[in-house]
Structure formats: structure tokens, C-alpha cells
Amino acid sequence: MKVKFCGAAKEVTGSSHLLRLDNGFSILLDCGLYQGNSESMTHFNENWLFDPKEIDCMILSHAHIDHSGRIPKLVRDGFRGSIYCTHATRSLCSIMLLDSAHIQEMDTGYFNKRLRKKGFHKDQKTPLYTSKDAMLAMNQFVGHTYNRWFSIHPDVDVLFQDAGHILGSASVSLRIQEGGRSIHFGFSGDVGRPFRPILRDPQPMPEMDYLICESTYGNRLHEEGPAEIEHFLDIIRHTCLEKKGKLIIPAFSIGRTQEIVYLLDQLETNDRLPHIPVYVDSPLAVNATQIFGSHPECFDNDLNEYLLIDDNPFGFNSLTYIRDKESSQQLNHSNEPCIIISSSGMMNAGRVKHHLYHNIDDPRNTFLMVGYCSPHTPGGKLRAGVEEIRIFGDWKPVKAEIAIMDSFSAHADKLELIDFIKNQKASAKKLFLVHGEPEVQSAFQQTLHDIGFQEVIIPELGEAFELR
What we know:
This protein is of the alpha/beta class. Helices cover about 30% and strands about 20% of the residues. It is built from 13 helices and 22 strands. It has helices at about 65-70, 70-75, 85-115, 130-135, 225-240, 255-270, 285-295, 300-305, 325-335, 350-360, 380-385, 415-420, 440-450, and strands at about 1-5, 15-20, 25-30, 55-60, 85, 140-145, 150-155, 155-160, 170-180, 180-185, 210-215, 245-250, 280, 320, 340, 365-370, 390, 395, 400-405, 430-435, 455, 465. The strands form four sheets. It has a seven-stranded mixed sheet with strand order 6-5-4-3-2-1-22. Helix 3 packs antiparallel against helix 4, helix 3 runs antiparallel to helix 7 (about 285-295) and helix 9 packs parallel to helix 10. The model has no long low-confidence stretch (mean pLDDT about 95).
């Protein structure tokens, strides 16, 4: 059996790992889009480190685009197998992949239009995939429930367990019969945080012989609950009441947006939210929030109890969901103090780029960063403290305040990751760290060695390992 790391190796996006059994059966774990501007990854999304036609099946841990975003291209390039995931992941992918295709079509059209204006007609781009490709790919999705083993091959069984990261997210446990013995191979997917709103806590995986584990926040700790709420309220009051500005929150449409809206809903219910308008400016987030309501099997007990006093935890009087472009554009020209939640979380696509363009040079405003951003994205540059930023070809001075609250992150921190995999210490022959920046992975690798893990490996992109 051999595992090859085809994405998210010393990177945080583009998750993709290929497992090939001795009998030739091949399983692709995730097929994500790289989101960033690293020169070494310029052509990652267009190329494969394997032949899609030779992949027998795919297992998808969750719907985030950096884990699912190349699936339509995979299918277009010849993959014909089933794509196994949870039911909620399938529901989310049905809107997310179409949205991703639409963004790529729009971006390509904009790029080609600018080329034509400059007199270049031979270097036209084509989108990575189209909306039609995304719709065709959905025909190959097969949904499964949590906590029930199912078979994908006479020698391979699969178990999904709740990873607590986003709606439908799962860790993947494989039980493989090979060479007269049973081998347990695991993939953590993205590990969520315990005691967070909406979703259940991450469930520990069975003991594995080999485990691929994410490491996004493997070197830091997050802020805890009560302090987080007061910090959030302080930022709202400071920006919207004292400065009379806009609080703009770049947030992924799936998970982060719903968690922030749910927290604001609770504050409003308890009469603690200042009387200011709140806008969710993302058509994808609007659709995703509706899907949340159709998958209560993923909710934790606290949300189920809250539903007894508030039948709509994602809506309150001062909240407006925006779908149409015209209403979104009006926000950019409005001077009213307000909260705007808009995607994408890394600010490298979507409507939030327009809010960035129109609001970053106004000191009354605050941009609140609530999750990980790749260093080369606009969000990553703002987190790093740049004094000016290039948006839509123009350089803008960064005069707005930049606030950071990583406690909203859907990724486990160092101690939460250790708690998630601590039961693997005795069984894991090899533990592979993926989905992290190199310096973070090195620190986490040392931490795991210090607490007793024997062989902790940080693979290179394209590197393969024999598993005996």
C-alpha cells in the first residue's frame, strides 16, 4: 500500500491525498482547490499528480472549497468513480461547487476582457471548470451517515465520524484487508473545536496504524468563550458606536458566517446587541444557511435547546440577507454604521473584495479577521500588517483598523488537536502532518515527539510513502 501527497503538503489549501492498495485499487482523499498566490503553486489547480482516469473512487471529508473545489475538473478530466461523503456535505457541495464555477467563469471573463482592451487576443484564458461541469460532477456523489461502516470495495470499509469543523465534516477511517491482515488508515480531515456553537464536538477516531492529520493551528491557542464574546462586543461598540464606522467581517460562507450570525442572534435575544443594522452580503451564505436548517442531525444540544425559545437562530430584526448585486453595491456607498459579513474569508474572491476596495482607506472602519488566511491572499497581507494593499489593480492605503479574533476559527488549536489524536499515540506507526504552514508543522511535529509520538512526518508535495 502506498500513500502519495498531492496537495496541502506544507500548504494550508488544496487538500488531496492518494492511497493506492497493492491490488491496484486507488482512493483519492479530498480534491481541493489551492487558494493563494505562492509562485511555486501557480499551476497547481490546472495539473494533476496522478491520472484522474485511474482513480477508482474518492472520499470527501467536507465541503470547503480547499477540500472539494477541483472535483468538477477531476470529473471533466476522466474520473468516473463514486464520491463518498456525508449527506450534509453533498448538500453543501451542490451549491458551493456551482458558486466556485461561477466565480471562475466571471474572473476569466474579466481577465479576458482586460486583455482584449490592451489588444491581446491570443492569450485568452478558459475557466478551470464551468457550471455545467459542476452540475455533472454532483451525479457521482454518494451520501452516507455518521458512525456506520460501509463498504467501497470487497477489501475496504469506511467510517465517517463527526469532525465538528463545518456542517457535515467528517474524519475518515479506512479498514483495509491486505496481505492477510487488517490495516487501519485514517484521515482527520479538518478538525473542529469542542464547545463551539451549532455543531457537535469532534469525535475521536478509532486507533489507526497510519494517520494523516491536519495541523493548521498546531503552534497556537485560541481565545476562550466568555472572553471571546466580550471582545467581539467591544469591537462592535468601538467601530459602530464610537467611530460611527462599518465593521466588515470577511467570513467563509459555510460555517463561519452561520456561527457569527448565531452569536449575534443570541446577543440580540439577550438585548446586548447595539441597535445597528447587520448585513450578510453573500448569496452563497444565504443558500448555505437554508441548508443548515435542513440538517439538524449535525446540531449540538445547545442549539437544539435554543430552538425552543427562538425558532430561527439565524435571523433577527436588524439582520438582512443580501442576494442581489445592487443592494451589495449600495452598502459601499452608504455611510451608516453597520456590520457587514461577506465572503470570502481570505478576501481573495467574492463581494468582500469590493467592500475591501471601498472601505480600507477609511479610519472609521474596522476589518475583523476571524479565521486563517493564506499569507499571499489579501486577508493574509492585512493580518501581517501591510500599510497598503493592491485591489483591482489599484494601491489602497490601509487606514481602517485591522482586528483579529482567531477564536472564531473552525480549526482546532494545538491543545485541541493533541486531545483529538492522543488515543493514536500507541497505535500509529506513522503520523503525517498536512494542511499547515511549514513553520507551524515543524513546531507541532516537535510537540508530538515530546509527548510520545514516534514517527511524525511532514511530507513534501508529490512525495510518496510505502506503508508496510
